[in-house]
Write a structure and sequence with these properties.
There is one protein chain. The chain has about 375 residues and is α/β, with parallel strands linked by helices. It folds into 2 domains: about 140 residues, Ribonuclease H-like superfamily/Ribonuclease H (Nucleotidyltransferase, domain 5), CATH 3.30.420.10; about 200 residues, Rossmann fold (3-Layer(aba) Sandwich). It is about 35% helix and about 20% strand. The chain contains 12 helices and 12 strands. The protein has a 6-stranded mixed β-sheet, sandwiched between helices. The chain has a 6-stranded mixed β-sheet with strand order 9-8-10-7-11-12, with helices on both faces.
Amino acid sequence: MSSTRVIVEADGGSRGNPGPAGYGAVVFDAEDHRVLAERMESLGVATNNVAEYRGLVAGLSAAAELGAVDVAVRMDSKLVVEQMSGRWKVKHPDMIPLQRRAAELASGFDQVTYTWIPRAENAHADRLANKAMDRDSDIDAVPGAVEDATASKTPPTSPGWMGEVGTPTRMLLLRHGQTPLSVERRYSGRGNPDLTDLGRAQARGAAARLSARDDIDAVVTSPLGRARQTAGAVADALGLPVVVHDGLTETDFGRWEGLTFREAAQQYPEDHRKWLSDTSVRPPGGESFDEVRARIVDVRDELVSTYSGRTILVVTHVTPIKTLLQLALDAGPALLYRLHLDLASLSIAEFYRDGGASVRLVNDTSHLPDPAITPLPTAR
């Protein structure tokens, strides 16, 4: 049965990103919300973004077959919605032909609108996509098989050996580049120095590396300038906007701000000694590591909820990154004092909605044009 005004909801996913992937799409009558068509397909190994675009193409194709002239597309992929709306650039080579195909299909309608919706409101297409991925995970599944689908959703399981349920939110944790304070190995918390020439080169190196990925859905950064400059370089290369999150700011070192490790130890000997072994101790006028942890727990929970099952770049500072790694590893406070993270280094942590987590990478500097300046382990 045809309808001139329809709603297309589409979704795609990948268990591993890249990993076993699939999409789902459903077309509704815009007047009474009747289901007019469903599409799903297992894609073999692909990324989230490829699967999302394939879902959109399938949904638009189904709408065209129904003779629709007015199409309202609703998806939970911010990347696809913004790129199809013309607000974000399409730079990754894997995305360009898919976006062009979707645009060609869209040009055949009188009107097409694109709206982002939360994943909870995209449950029908999500169910189809998960069924497609379930088929692709089955040894008897045939990648590329397309079918109309009505089966209920089976919760996906991660490819990890511990069997956490669901697709994790993958956080690419990028420390900002070099600043004058890091050159001199001084405490740099809430102060706002700019990047040095080397720091900007480090940011460009990170941008070159990360722009080769097609799975990054968002760039989220600390509000401090050194992080925002680093994030901006990568976001420009990815064609994504920068989202500022105040919770990702660095530790407030209070009256130690701008001091070297030795100067702080000499001027505040008792406070400094206690601070080095007790995460509840604040620098004079500053913030304890326990307070940072409470703040970062809230940030983690918010990001996992907002970007559930997606890959995001988080550009921030050494203490927030250490804390996120500590949370992912369920490690004790010693990690904060013993783990070294270079400037502009990349780490990767994954967080599942059921509470599981894993760490895939720590302190990778292979993208840096020059060796990073190495601060003292405790001079955060």
